[in-house]
Design goal:
Strand content: under 5%
Helix content: over 70%
Distance between the termini: 43 Å
Structural class: mainly alpha
Shape: globular
Number of strands: 0
Mean pLDDT: 87
Radius of gyration: 20 Å
Order of helices and strands: HHHHHHHHHH
Low-confidence stretches: none
Largest sheet: none
Length: 225
């Protein structure tokens, strides 16, 4: 339908204008979180009980414990205001995307690190890993062909709802960094009691979540046929 607050502005038009910004930020954050989180989880599991393991655990604990708005403000304060390395806010080029991308990906990175570490530790002690070593396979072959493909399944499960949440617009980060994404419209809709806007955004998010989970189910077959 149309917005009750913005003089009949179609909800689909609002989503069409805002979603590209949310998707751009979300894709950047998702790629960063997936690459770093899985890598840290593997390193932590393979280096269990050593210094690298403790460093990865500390990063994971911080990422899960700190709310998004705290992470966002800390990055703004140190890297934008104090060190003058990046812009404080807005969305006008690559340098403007770095701080919000890191802030948005921090929690997901920590979540994936913890899950990947726990899953890898279960796989490392399995009998088929011992057999692979006894057959003379190298560490890299064992990691890629046996450990990673089995350990990554729980991580892929989580990526479905995480992808939908990130790509549909993270309200807090978009508000802190003045990004004209769906988060701004959603928050304004709640504040302005714009029920049609709230319903439209919610239906869009729910559809996106269903599609993301469907894609995850398909990916299962490729990872573990």
């Amino acid at each position: 339908g149309v917005s009750m607050y913005y003089n009949g502005l179609p909800i689909r038009q609002m989503i069409a204008e805002a979603f590209p910004y949310s998707a751009d930020l979300g894709i950047r954050a998702l790629l960063l979180a997936t690459a770093v989180g899985i890598s840290l989880g593997i390193i932590s599991a393979l280096q269990r009980g050593r210094t690298l393991d403790y460093v990865c655990i500390i990063i994971a604990i911080l990422g899960v414990s700190l709310p998004d708005f705290v992470t966002g403000y800390l990055l703004q304060y140190f890297f934008a205001l104090k060190l003058k390395l990046f812009p404080v806010a807005l969305w006008r080029g690559f340098r403007y995307t770095i701080l919000p991308t890191v802030a948005l990906s921090f929690y997901t990175t920590a979540l994936l690190t913890r899950m990947m570490r726990a899953s890898m530790l279960e796989v490392v002690g399995q009998d088929y890993i011992r057999v692979a070593r006894a057959k003379g396979l190298s560490t890299v072959q064992i990691l890629w062909r046996h450990q990673l493909r089995n350990a990554i399944l729980p991580v892929v499960t989580v990526l479905g709802p995480v992808t939908a949440a990130i790509l549909s617009g993270t309200f807090i980060i978009e508000t802190i960094y003045a990004i004209p994404g769906m988060g701004k419209y959603y928050v304004n809709g709640i504040q302005n009691l714009d029920y049609s806007q709230i319903l439209g955004m919610t239906i869009f998010y729910g559809t996106f979540l269903s599609l993301a989970n469907f894609v995850v189910d398909i990916i299962y077959g490729f990872i573990d046929p």
